[in-house]
Design brief:
Elements (H helix, E strand, L loop, with lengths): L1 E6 L7 E5 L5 E7 L6 E5 L5 E8 L6 E6 L2 E8 L8 E4 L4 E4 L5 E5 L5 E8 L6 E6 L5 H18 L1
Antiparallel strand pairs: 1-2, 1-12, 2-3, 3-4, 4-5, 5-6, 6-7, 7-8, 9-10, 10-11, 11-12
């Protein structure tokens, strides 16, 4: 399953549209006014299905992930000097990536790829392609991508 993650050009808060291979909108992400990032994920019918919420007052950035109202895990940035690393407490997954954080993979505990994320350059807004190997992992992979993008935006 392939997802196209595209930030909206004119938006006061983070706002994204997520498309499938046939260019159908399958998720809409809307940022909300809050301390730290708070991104709500909606299905095509407008039902809220997930949330990525930044924890504030932490030494390093940390984001909590929710399916509906149920906490499913978190992602936090690790203290490193050259290569950004993230600690994921969700499904036993890990993030492996490059120095620029434009291309990275989410793998399970056995090293099997869950999703591959790549940033497309030469666009007016942030645009990512998310290749998810199992459709049931799409929403969690999207939430991790949103958290990493939000952390990079805060840092830059």
């Amino acid at each position: 399953m392939r997802l196209l993650f595209k930030q909206r050009f004119f938006s006061w808060f983070d706002s994204y549209d997520i498309y499938d291979e046939e260019e159908n909108t399958i998720y809409t992400v809307k940022g909300q006014l809050s301390w730290g990032h708070c991104l709500k994920i909606f299905d095509p019918m407008g039902n809220e299905i997930g949330t990525v919420r930044e924890k504030i007052l932490t030494f390093l950035p940390k984001f909590e992930l929710y399916l509906g109202d149920q906490y499913i895990g978190c992602i936090s940035k690790e203290l490193t000097f050259f290569k950004p690393r993230y600690n994921i407490d969700c499904n036993g997954w890990e993030v492996e990536g490059n120095f620029l954080e434009w291309d990275y993979s989410i793998v399970d505990s056995s090293g099997t790829p869950v999703a591959v994320i790549s940033k497309e350059i030469f666009h007016w807004t942030d645009t990512y392609v998310i290749q998810v190997y199992r459709p049931e992992d799409a929403l969690c992979a999207l939430m991790l991508t949103l958290a990493i993008d939000a952390e990079k935006c805060s840092r830059d």
